[in-house]
Amino acid sequence: MKYKIFTIATLLFVTTVVLSQTKSAATLRLEAHQSSGNCDVDIPTDNPDWNLEFEVRDLTGDLAPNDYYTRRDPSSVLKVNGKYYVWYSYSLTNGVGKVSAWDLNDLYFATSTDGYHWTEQGVAVARGPEGSYDHRSAFTTEVFYHDNIFYLVYQASDTEENLNSNNTVAMAYSSSADGPWTKLEDPILSPSSEQSVAFDKNTVHDPCIIYFKGKFYMYYKGEGNESAVCSYDTQIWGTSNKQVKWGVAIADNVTGPYVKSAYNPITNTGHEVCVWHSGEGLGIMLHQDGPEYGTTQYSSDGINFEIMGKVDFPLKNPRNSTYPEAAGLYRSETSNNSPVSGVSWGVSHVLNWGGTYGSWMYIRRFDLKNPPASIEDIKKIYGVNIYPNPATDTINIGNFNGGTVVLYSINGAILKELDASQIKDGIDVSAFTSGIYYLLFKTEKGNYGTKVIIKS
Ligand code: AAL
To answer: Is the peptide bond before 207 cis (omega within 30 degrees of 0)?
Structure first.
């Protein structure tokens, strides 16, 4: 009997501890803002790798800007048999009966051999027949490749009323990136509409599946009825108080069932979901809607994310900025060489509210300005040889034929900027003190860079 009481007491204690711990690190930070009324966000200054700056450029071919078409919310980019693939929401900008840019959408896809010039291949997943969960619109998709199968997860809306709220997340799969795609019978995620205060009570958006620690983590954005705390819009625009957060739902099998984490929400900010593998954990980048806008974050458990750095973009006018909005990351096999090499490049969308045919959006490319790579990868991927490392008097650069090389201090100061013809005899570094420096290669086709060591 004594033993039983002890067991029950222990159980109660453990349950209480577990229950009281079901708040993510991001929720605890939000509560601190709430109770102090202070919206300042603490961004560490000692993780230079996590401070990101992007360059953006328009694509050519079928994905060149054209206001007749609306292409938005692109998936990640995959390289399959030497070709790049991307999937996205597609509609005619002035499509008959459309009530918003993501209404009456289908999922289209395009391919490219160089990542700049794209050919649209047509529909991948079309919205379904009357009565189906995606009858009104199929939009905002993400691709996931696992065990030789491709999966497209996307937002689904059955009716016009459920276009902005009550979206569900659906999934289609194929053994080929070119399709054909088979839809699962039912959506794999729905809003927590039965709960009065859930962060995702009204809708679930922007699904993204990541294989992590032997399970399938589906990150998504939720919207509820909570009033916003330190909202981005209020601080930056002085207007609405929209605040959205991300959740995660975890499954043992890729097709589900996906169980929402008890720690949700796992961010307190972030419009479109953007997650990448970073070392043993995961990196994320948060756009607007919440106090931690413009931050990069890291988590070792996929649940508790800590602020690591910031994305450099003009916060006052982010809609015209180089921030990759609705980023679709290039998922390469070598994308885990540095904490942020998962965001080296990809595609994002540009919003144009209003135009000849109405509001329209197009997809463009973004590149990390100073993408970190290892010296070995630069040789493997670009053929450029950097030696010796550490260097004492000279850094030699072999096989770099066109573009500019910039040598930075670790704090970002430009120390030298030389074109290909000026580095024939190497870069003279004899005047620099011992330490870590950064070499950036700027070429017509994008930038890449690496850390180098100078030993005086
Ligand atoms: C986007 C995404 C989702 C929303 C709408 C289309 O920014 O968050 O996809 O439903 O806007």
So the answer is: no
The atom of ligand 1 lying closest to the CA of 203 is 10
Angle at 438 between CA 306 and CA 79, to 5 degrees: 70
CA-angle at 263, arms to 260 and 265, nearest 5°: 80
Which residue has a Cα nearest atom 8 of ligand 1? 272
Structure-token match 């959205």, residue found: 244
Cis peptide before 265 (omega within 30 of 0): yes
Pocket test for ligand 1, best of 102, 168, 244 (most atoms within 8 A of CB): 102
The string of DSSP codes covering 348-381 is EEEEE---TTSSEEEEEEEEESS-EE-HHHHHHH
Instruction: Delineate the domains of the chain, giving CATH numbers in brackets.
Output: 9-368 (2.115.10.20), 375-454 (2.60.40)
Assigned token pair, 290: 């919440």
- How far, rounded to the nearest angstrom, does the alpha carbon of residue 434 sit from its chain's CA centroid? 36
Match 């560490």 to its residue by tokens: 44
Q: Are 163 and 191 in contact (CB under 8 A)?
A: no
How far is ligand 1, taken at its centre, from the CA of residue 102, in Å? Answer: 7
**Residue 428 is encoded by which pair of tokens?**
């003279």
- Mark residue 181 as left, alpha or beta (left: phi above 0; alpha: psi -120 to 50; beta: remaining): beta
DSSP state of 42: -
pLDDT tens figures, 248-281: 999 999 999 999 999 999 999 998 999 999 888 9
Residue 402 falls in which region: left (phi positive, over 0), alpha (psi -120 to 50) or beta:
beta
Question: What is the rounded CA–CA span in Å between residue 417 and residue 414?
Answer: 7
Rounded CA-CA distance 73/426 in Å is 44
Instruction: Please tell me the residue having the least CA distance from ligand 1 atom 7.
Output: 272
For the chain, the first-to-last Cα distance in angstroms comes to 74
pLDDT tens, position by position, 222-232: 998 877 888 87
Q: How far, in Å, CA of 107 to CA of 171, rounded?
A: 12
Prediction pTM value: 0.83
Supply the DSSP symbol for 74: -
Ligand 1: centre distance to CA 221 (Å): 9
Summarised one tens digit per residue, pLDDT across range 174-213 is: 999 999 999 999 999 999 999 888 999 999 999 999 999 9
At 368, the amino acid letter reads L
CB-based contacts of 242: which residues, under 8 Å, 6+ apart? 228, 231, 233, 289
The CA distance from 375 to 378, in Å, is 5
